[in-house]
Write a structure and sequence with these properties.
about 375 residues; alpha/beta; globular
Length: about 375
């Protein structure tokens, strides 16, 4: 049986499949089992920020695997400690403590629990179109994918994104946390207004709620700064991270201010902070710094925007871009465009029913961006 036959036989059937079997990657390129080459504008849904199979990350994984793969949090570990120190050194001011886990959803679950533990409250306020994960707690703060799993956590409310007055009215004495993304990814690549997040910070401080910023997708140089919070001068109480953190290895993290309370045994993760993932993360972060991937994302994102928008295809309604996080809103459904792009050797994502989402590895070249722009113009023209 080939890969497709094996997965169709044994997989649970959760994912909407594309008729491609990916077997190899390098930089911003992927190859299928027939030898076809693709420019990857998915990066594993925003994971491969340093590119596929980065030699430094692969070397670090191999070296750590030969030494120690797992060590639970009940023991100290040098690799884990060095990663925590590095994350704190990069984080917005005031985030001095770290909890390591295995995914973005897990980071949100931890942040929600810590917010409830710290404040003694249960309420959550998040934004319409926001996405924070698919596990039950994270899903409670997520605007879609909810209906089949109700009832979720009680006392969760949603407000229109970027509307300060609605946010103001939603935060009350029952609110444990406000959860927001600097750029809504799954929601269509929609940036938050700086004033909106600034006011969210003020309202949380005034009313005793914690501010959780979800940088699972925007973190690690994606938007043109190491964290999107940096460009916004935003200091959250909890910062949720994952995706690009470890060069493709499963990892998540919550960075916490001293205000956040945790007691021994109040939370945990068997695999969280395992030395193998920590070694990969240290190597990936070193690559981001050494190769100046934040600057690269900012410059190449602007380059894409200028090239693509110089002559906007007639099927395009709007382009939203922050670094190499790009949303192209169409005047029609997105699926035919994504299928046509595959024929052009381009892999892209959707963000809702009408938005093409591009999240390429940050090592993508200008020549590859030129090829993506040319293919987009071709498939989006009459």
């Amino acid at each position: 049986m080939n890969a497709k036959e094996l997965e169709e036989c044994f997989a649970l059937g959760i994912y909407p499949r594309r008729e491609i079997t990916i077997v190899r990657g390098e930089g911003a390129l992927l190859w299928d089992d027939a030898g076809n080459e693709y420019i990857d504008c998915t990066a594993g849904v925003g994971v491969a920020n340093v590119g596929h199979a980065h030699p430094a990350v692969a070397k670090a994984i191999a070296a750590q695997a030969a030494q120690l793969v797992t060590s639970p949090g009940i023991f100290y570990n040098d690799t884990r400690g060095r990663l925590m120190q590095k994350l704190v050194s990069l984080a917005p001011s005031g985030l001095n403590r770290v909890f390591l886990c295995n995914s973005g959803s897990e980071s949100l679950e931890a942040a929600i629990k810590l917010a409830r533990l710290t404040t003694g409250r249960t309420g959550l306020v998040s934004a319409m179109r926001g996405f924070h994960g698919r596990t039950l707690g994270a899903l409670s703060a997520t605007f879609k994918y909810r209906d089949a799993f109700e009832p979720l956590l009680p006392n969760c409310s949603f407000v229109p994104f970027n509307q300060v007055d609605k946010l103001d009215r939603a935060i009350d004495e029952t609110t444990a946390a406000v959860i927001l993304e600097p750029v809504q990814g799954e929601g269509g690549v929609r940036p938050a207004d700086p004033g909106y997040l600034e006011r969210a910070r003020q309202l949380c401080s005034e009313r005793g709620a914690l501010l959780i910023i979800d940088e699972v997708q925007t973190g690690f140089c994606r938007t043109g700064s190491f964290f999107a919070c940096d460009a916004l001068n935003l200091e959250p109480d909890l910062l949720c991270l994952a995706k690009g953190i470890a060069g493709g290895m499963p990892m998540g993290a919550v960075l916490c201010s001293d205000q956040v309370q945790a007691t021994v045994g109040s939370h945990g993760s068997t695999f969280g902070g395992n030395p193998l993932a920590c070694a990969a993360a240290l190597a990936a972060i070193n690559c981001m710094e050494k190769e100046q991937l934040a600057d690269r994302a900012r410059d190449l994102g602007a380059y894409f925007y200028q090239r693509f928008c110089a002559e906007l295809p007639p099927k395009v309604r709007e382009v939203r871009q922050v670094g190499l996080m790009i949303g192209i809103e169409l005047k029609e459904k997105v699926t035919p465009c994504l299928k046509a792009l595959v024929d052009e050797g381009i892999l892209a994502l959707s963000a809702g029913s009408t938005v093409v989402r591009l999240l390429p590895p940050l090592v993508i070249t200008r020549a590859q961006i030129d090829a993506v722009v040319a293919s987009l113009h071709k498939v989006l023209s009459p």
